[in-house]
Amino acid sequence: MKPKWTALLTVLIAMAAPAAALAKGQQIVVSNYGIAANGMPYAVAMAKGFFKQSGADVTGILSSSGGGTTIRNLVGGNLSFGEADLAGTLAAIQQGADLHIISDDVLTVGEFVWAVKPTSPIRIVKDFAGKKIGYTSPRATSQALDVLLLQTNKVTALPTKVGGFGEQIVALNLGAIDVATLAEPVFSKNAGRLRAIVRAADVLPPMANVVGVATGKAIKQDGEFLKAVLRGRRMAVEFIYAHPDEAAAIVAKAYNIDLATARMSIRNLTAPPKPGHLPYWGSGRFDMAGMKRMIAAQKMVGGFSGSIDLNKIIDRRFLPADLQKDY
Prior knowledge:
18% strand; D-Maltodextrin-Binding Protein, domain 2; alpha/beta; 2 domains; six-stranded mixed β-sheet; globular
């Protein structure tokens, strides 16, 4: 084959890869999309057309109530990509699910805030001693963080199961708990009637919060789609940090919350991290130390047990080349 035709063929093949990914429209599933902060970049990616620009025809985003539900929707719905909590993903893999972690999406638990009523005498974490501290449900991240915060500060308190973040607001107002463990955007929505005692980002180290997950089938058959999804999400993350107010307007619409709440939430999450810490939303690059910290925290509350070789279930091939090297 003549050199000029070889070169032309190479260009056509390169162009065909994203086009092939775009041609196959798919839904993706994201834990607590429309509710929790981890999913906000997907709202931006959809609104700004970043997925399509990257070559992924994402036709919709399914939400779920947690990692276990996300995994069931991912596998049972024959989908290619999902975003779920690390412990839930690892537990599913231990139980035999053919899953692979392909991106490290949220690098901290910076969306969490411990708050009280404005009239509460509680001023610092040491004042939590003997008090009822709310969490959502057994083995949830909120329970693990309660235990970790109390252990770190050598405080003995009473972690109390409440139900959800909204339910914690009610329980706090009724006096059923003394401290609520809240997450964005619920905290920002209720900030006017709460007083923050401490933010997780200020007292806890980076911990892998949610990860991008793909099925073994997708790894074999839909590689270009997976690459395109990760490229589109990266574009959305970069857009949020560069244009927080415009991103807030998108999130407010997608999450059905008022603009002021969305702006406060995003500004809290995009605030410069402490020296040596990582940002809340990552672009996909792995923080192995943060993953190990989250596993240790989840083990304390029974969210994960046993051991697992992370290197055997992590696949970095679908990240852009500059993100394949870990932090």
